[in-house]
Write a structure and sequence with these properties.
Length: 217
């Protein structure tokens, strides 16, 4: 088994259209025909609710995580940490590419944020946990999954370049590229956020309702 085969396998793993298959099997719909039209966790939260959105998010994360771990199938990368990290990033990006352009779902997928997170979790767990902290904090304060994803991705290169000061140029470039990629794939969300028309996740809505009631008392 060589690098090329693993790269193809990583893409195929990333191409597993979790949201499309779950929406089709359990609800007899194509998630891409509803909400934002994306086959990802955010749109699943919006259309099918918290339970199914969480399931899709976890499974999409596992795609990135599993793709990264394929590097251990080659003995050379087991003993060379620097080369392994670079190859793992490549495998993870192939999985993200598969998620965005899935061969199993007419090349119409999601935005790849959860799969990207699975990649980071496999390569750098502490950095991933820090990004999760940013994501959850923003989500708690705003209930916008898109804004949480954007700000967490922007925090990623800050953690890599400044706080943890990772001594791997490929990883540093990757961190900056991730932030730019997430911003690029969320252009429509950014526009809706600026217009005030972005949908909120169906979590903590009772808290917000109480706030609204208090303002009217």
């Amino acid at each position: 088994m060589n690098e090329f085969i693993l790269i193809i396998l990583a893409y195929l793993i990333g191409s597993i259209p979790t949201a499309v298959w779950i929406s089709g099997y359990f609800f007899n719909i194509d998630i891409r025909d509803y909400g934002s039209g994306n086959a990802g966790a955010t749109n699943t939260y919006r259309v099918l609710g918290t339970k199914w959105g969480t399931i899709v998010m976890v499974l999409d994360m596992l795609k990135g995580f599993a793709a990264v771990k394929l590097a251990y199938l080659l003995p050379f990368y087991v003993g060379d940490e620097f080369a392994r990290t670079n190859f793992q990033i490549g495998l993870g990006l192939c999985a993200v590419l598969g998620h965005i352009f899935p061969i199993w779902a007419q090349f119409r997928g999601g935005k790849g944020v959860a799969t990207l997170f699975g990649l980071v979790l496999a390569v750098s767990p502490w950095t991933a946990l820090c990004c999760v902290g940013v994501f959850l904090l923003v989500l708690y304060l705003t209930r916008f999954v898109s804004l949480s994803s954007i700000l967490a991705s922007m925090a990623f290169p800050i953690f890599i370049l400044v706080i943890f000061n990772v001594d791997n140029h490929a990883y540093r470039i990757f961190a900056v590229a991730v932030a730019l990629l997430v911003i690029l794939t969320h252009q429509k969300n950014i526009t809706r956020l600026l217009k005030g028309s972005e949908s909120k996740a169906p979590i903590l809505k009772y808290r917000d309702r109480k706030k609204i009631r208090r303002t009217h008392i």
